[in-house]
Amino acid sequence: MNDTAAELAAQAKNLEERGLLSGEAAELVAGLLAEVETLRRQNGNLRRAALKSSKHDRMSTKLKEALYE
């Protein structure tokens, strides 16, 4: 979990302990935080895949132009 998500989780826990967050709201927040973590992991995977694909050799512009003619 990144720092921002951890801070949000701590704030939600604090609100729940103080009784300012209902049970349903706490469940919703927990679900949203889990979704944030899932999306963070997916984003990391996509970034790595994009970086890996950008390292592959590319055709030169002249070669592309010649192929398209």
Walk me through the structure.
The protein has 69 residues and is mainly α. It contains 3 helices and no strands. It has helices at residues 3-17, 23-54, 61-68. Helix 1 (3-17) runs antiparallel to helix 2 (23-54). 0% of the residues are buried.
Topology:
Blueprint: H1 3-17, H2 23-54, H3 61-68
Please state the average pLDDT score. Answer: 86
| Classification by helices and strands | mainly alpha
What composes the largest sheet?
A: none
Helices, by number, come to 3
State the distance separating the first and last CA atoms. 51 Å
The overall strand count is 0
Uncertain segments: none
Briefly summarize what is shown:
By secondary structure, the protein is an all-alpha fold.
Core attributes:
about 70 residues; mainly alpha; 3 helices
